[in-house]
Amino acid sequence: SLLSLEDPYYRFNDVAYRWISLDNWTYSRTFKTPFDIKKWQKVNLVFEGVDTVAQILLNNVTLGRTDNMFNRYSFDITSVIQEVNFVEVRFLSAISYAAEQSRCHKGHSIPPVCPPPVQKGECHVNFIRKEQCSFSWDWGPSFPTQGIWKDVRIEAYNHYHLIYFSTTPLFVKSTQQWCLEVESIFDVVSSKPIAGLVTVNIPKLQTQQTFSVKLQPGEGSIVQLVNINKSATVEPWWPNGHGKQTGYNMTTTFTMEAGCQIEKFSKVYFRTVELVQEPIPGSPGLSFYFKINGRPIFIKGSNWIPADSFQDRVTYDTLRLLLKSAADANMNALRVWGGGVYEQDEFYDICDEIGIMIWQDFMFACALYPTDQNYLESVRAEVSHQVRRLKSHPSIILWSGNNENEAAIASNWFSIPYPDIGVYIEDYVTLYVKNIREIVLCEDKSRPFVVSSPTNGLESVKEGWLSRDPYDTHYGDTHFYDYSNDCWNWTMYPKTRFASEYGFQSWPSFSTIEKVSSPEDWSCTSNFSLHRQHHEGGNIQMLQEIGRHFKLPQCPDPVKQFKDMIYLTQVMQAQCIKTETEFYRFSQSEIINGEGHTMGALYWQLNDIWQAPSWASLEDGLQSPRNHYFLSSLKDAVGLEKTQLSASVSQQDDIYIFALQTTAIAPFVTLDVGSIKGRFSDNGFLMTEKKKMVAFYPWEPTSVEELESSLILTSLLDVV
């Protein structure tokens, strides 16, 4: 029987549909083998991603079990496959598995046990290798999914088979020459070594080299060092805003004596990355900044969370539009945050193409984790797989072991009694240093690794991998949130070396909320408004922050008051993030009282996982070539008159032009075209002239008529 469900994001469905996560589900199907089984020495059933705990059966034979969403699983089915087959994936509820793992854990407890009640989430997520925010977060719902979230395929081969293939560029300073490390990992079926040739060809760089190789039986790797032709000019890969993202087509051909040839097509990029941590004149501590191709780069961007609670809904187009929006807003970097997922291949491909640098966390966040043998083996396989899968991408400039777990121990978030802290420090070093770091350094010598974020970098290493204060502005990176002080007052912000997280909440636009709610929900105090707010006291904090500089909405109509409140939270968020970001930008070139040389600003967060209050900025990006400074709070401003705002829309090729007119100065003019997807060239701006042109870049087909009828124009003077 088919299950008919509403949109899981509609109203209170995150709670109404929780039973689905508590049940065990089995996926099964019958399939015909599309080849002659007898012709192949080895046949594998490969799962690129299983979410998460399952038993896999083929023709009623158990092939094995899965327990890690981030791992790739390959099962040998040579002796099991038939002409017609029945495959089953029997899932176990992630919630019950996590609870059981926690219950069976011997020795000390592994906090936190459960998320705060305001998150309406599930417990023991740190006991399962699964997207950590799928059990809930302070900006997202609890949808502990179970299913096959990536491709499944059958591989059949004779002699040998290529499993992983990667390229790493290296610049040799002594000879001023680029070379390329080409690594291939094979499964060799034959019982004897296989000899043959590998030819690497990069036509644009007039580079071709052939190597004799011998593949040993079983799984193993070969590495070739390709010297790039000295007479060829190599154009390096640069971040967005610093140059081109030149890539070169490369063909690698494996011709083995056994008679079977493999041809591998790939794109290679040339760039170097260094994380510089060295003394700064006039300042205690160390610098913390990135050099790309020898050039110091100010990292400016945001943090990335999963684009949906259901990964199969995240399409190439979704990713391209979100990432393109970031590049169009002049960002050059994103941090893939450690409570989500290692993103899909296409995500990194797009970042390579448009010059978005990636700070890549491993998937551990805001918790302590077990270190028993089974758990560590699973993590080791995960890390090895992800590094092999991703290390060829020039966009990835850093591996980071976890999100905020050094801080969790240093600031004792979980109230661990002081005599017991040693065992947790030992666990921490075991997991992130002796296992994760060791594998990363072995698999990838081409980019830096930090153990946590925030961290004091080399100072944390010196203090035994855990610093006394990971938020120290003189070292490493910091995360900073403050909801109780005035965000227009830039003196409250830390003059840090690198701001890798900071931000303020806002509500998404009314047109976004409207799709997942009903009219009775449209008020500041409705059950829905409280249900969607997963950050304790968040709605009150937003109103307090608004009240410092703006008049709070007083409209007797609750729906109008709700819309005004939403609008003001967005204005407030934009102003707060603008102030803080500008502070980090101008701290780049100064040292005051021993603090400064800020070389990175990544605000929290770029995108939303669902329609709820969060720290996200996309939906509208605030981007303007001019800057305005308000000499007073706008609630105290004199001379602001009621204004008539109007707009007409015309079309130019694929772009729509909104011609705006105003009769008086209009602060924070916002354009909203409802559910029509696209991007405005400017939004949330101060309109000081009578006329202004704003371009709209649609992400789907639309028309002048549709845009005109959908347009809602709002300025601060519309709030009553």
Average pLDDT, all residues: 95
* Low-pLDDT residue intervals, each spanning 5 or more residues: none
Give me the side-by-side strand order of the main sheet: 26-25-24-23-22-31
Principal-axes geometry comes out as globular
The helix-and-strand class reads alpha+beta
The amount of helix comes to: 10-25%
Number of strands: 38
Q: For the CA atoms, what is the radius of gyration?
A: 27 Å
Q: Determine the number of helices (DSSP H or I, runs of at least 4 residues).
A: 14
Major sheet characteristics: 6 strands, parallel
Q: Indicate the proportion of strand residues.
A: 25-35%
Distance between the termini: 52 Å
Report what the structure shows.
With 720 residues, the chain is of the alpha+beta class. It contains 14 helices and 38 strands. It has a six-stranded parallel β-sheet. Strands 1-7-4-5 form a four-stranded antiparallel β-sheet, with no helix packed on it. The chain is globular, with a radius of gyration of 27 Å.
